[in-house]
């Protein structure tokens, strides 16, 4: 009888632990569409399979997710929150995000140094990079464009499409052109002057990424500064478009995974972040969407590597324009941009 009681007690403990494991849940945001599909395939489903924990997904882009985080400061819904616009810098300063001990992440040691530089301050690690470079029609151009400065050549203008700086990728491309023209974040006039000249020579401006696809598809357009992942999108649409990093540097949009402060299941949240940093998850994302991996041990096939900033050589030219400065000035920059392109 005593042995039966012990067995029943053990069974009850096991059953309770199984219920607890399957009842465990974290809440994250993802960006919807193809991104969310890849997120499920590369991280969420493997995480659930390994831990038994459910992942509740709120579809919210960076700005909206950050607004929610601020509004819910005293009772946040998110355990892990993802940003692509640098919101983690402000979130860490405001105490909305928790510092991350790198020793609790098995993949932290394999990250490129820039990717996890401020985890101890609450800024989550970058688990992907959207690299901004030169998209070009390989049927129209015999050689890949080597430099951002090439876009300023008069004979490039007739086939050049620029993207409005209300679009983040368009903004990063413009800031790179501004830097090459001699400007910086305190002075965007050199970039504006360069854009005026490009437009006078035949370039034109679009506002959204589908318009870039339309421009390439209609013919006449053979080069555009934009994100590496979109070159892949265009090729899937049957267009002969490739991605090239410019010699002067590659603007980078960091996609970060952040630990929310004030939640009671941070160990589980950290495990989720750690899985996002794994070479397997990052290779999966690169295969699906052509984002640049931040784990140095990520191995990519040649055709995928050609579309991203890959390996030590590829990532050493990545540069990040200060998100705080961009946030403080963006509205004014848009006004100046609109004046410039209207002339």
TrEMBL record:
UniProt-listed Pfam families: SBP_bac_8
InterPro entries listed in its UniProt record: SBP (IPR006059)
One term of GO molecular function: thiamine pyrophosphate binding
Phosphoprotein recorded as keyword: no
One GO term of the biological process aspect: thiamine transport
SUPFAM superfamilies tied to this protein: Periplasmic binding protein-like II (SSF53850)
Extent of the signal sequence: 1-23
GO cellular component, one term: outer membrane-bounded periplasmic space
Keyword terms: Periplasm, Signal
Domain of life: Bacteria
Keyword Protease among record annotations: no
Matches recorded under PANTHER family: ABC TRANSPORTER SUBSTRATE-BINDING PROTEIN, THIAMINE-BINDING PERIPLASMIC PROTEIN-RELATED
Protein name: ABC transporter substrate-binding protein
